[in-house]
Amino acid sequence: MNLTIQGLHAVLTEQAATIQSIAQMSGAEKILEINPNAVRLENVQCDADILQAIQKLCFSAQLDVYHGPAQQLSEFKLVAMDMDSTLITIECIDEIADMQGLKPQVAEITEAAMRGEIEFQESLIRRVGLLKGLEASALQRVYDQRLQLSLGAEYMLQQVQQAGLKTLLVSGGFTFFTDRMKSRLNLDYTHANVLEIIDDKLTGKVVGTIVNADEKKRTVEKICTELGISTQQAIVMGDGANDLKMMGIAGLSVAFRAKPVVRAQANVALNFVGLDGILNLF
């Protein structure tokens, strides 16, 4: 087993003492610099207590740490991602609500749902209901003025696509945004909720099946079946409680800037580095 440690700054120069301390704690045979921002400690011996101590030390030093076997990116065939607060920095529904002057009320429900305190389907119906009567043009304004890709997203996607992996964006958000992400980032598959729009206004309803935790999991399974691969050959990334079921069937689950309940269950948590941090694990 190896430890991969990475941060936003030069790890070996700025965090030399921390890295040396972790190498001693873990009995690492070798420290290998992957790039200035990432190192791999090879052939470590960590029991649960030592690993927990290392994780705490890294978190306080704003470093991300992954404990796992040496793997090749070629072992995986699919990268599946949540959209809001994972591939992109915003929660689209919160920003749409801001156009109605309702962002605080909607954001409060969003946060509770992502923490797992409210069932996602109920939370979505409540939030979308608050958008009734909003001009549909508000969606384009959110896309143009507020939507930004998460740190490292574009480079990560370029690298996994070059390596031949397929890409899936599966979101409890809306097709208005996933469709644009698909063409902008050359994604292979997308699945999201459809907002009902009549006479260029939002009706406050969602059309068809709501993309909740179960639907996200089913979508990953369906795409894996189409590709003729096991779900163990999928890397799945998310940040909220509604991502846990699809993350749970993955060969590698990645919690990105995630809620504590999600970090605790993921194989790897990227709290500080960008989405391209997954590349350093291989």
Order of helices and strands: EHHEEHEEHHHHHEHEEHEHEHE
Number of E strands: 11
Second rung of CATH, namely the architecture of the largest domain? 3-Layer(aba) Sandwich
Profile the largest sheet: 7 strands, mixed
CATH fold assignment of the largest domain: Rossmann fold
Classify the beta-strand content into a percent band: 15-25%
Characterization of this structure:
The chain has helices at 11-14, 16-26, 48-60, 92-98, 103-114, 120-129, 137-145, 153-162, 175-185, 213-227, 244-248, 260-263, and strands at residues 2-6, 30-35, 38-42, 64-68, 78-81, 166-174, 189-198, 201-207, 234-238, 252-256, 268-270. The chain is of the alpha/beta class and 282 residues long. The protein has two domains: 1-70, RRM (RNA recognition motif) domain (Alpha-Beta Plaits), CATH 3.30.70; 78-226, HAD superfamily/HAD-like (Rossmann fold). The strands form two sheets. Strands 8-7-6-5-9-10-11 form a seven-stranded mixed β-sheet, sandwiched between helices. A four-stranded antiparallel β-sheet has the order 2-3-1-4, with helices on one face. β7 and β8 (201-207) form a beta hairpin. α2 packs antiparallel against α3 (48-60) and α4 packs antiparallel against α5. It starts with a strand and ends in a 12-residue tail after the last strand. 44% of the residues are buried. The model has no long low-confidence stretch (mean pLDDT 96).
Quick overview:
This protein has 282 residues and is α/β, with parallel strands linked by helices.
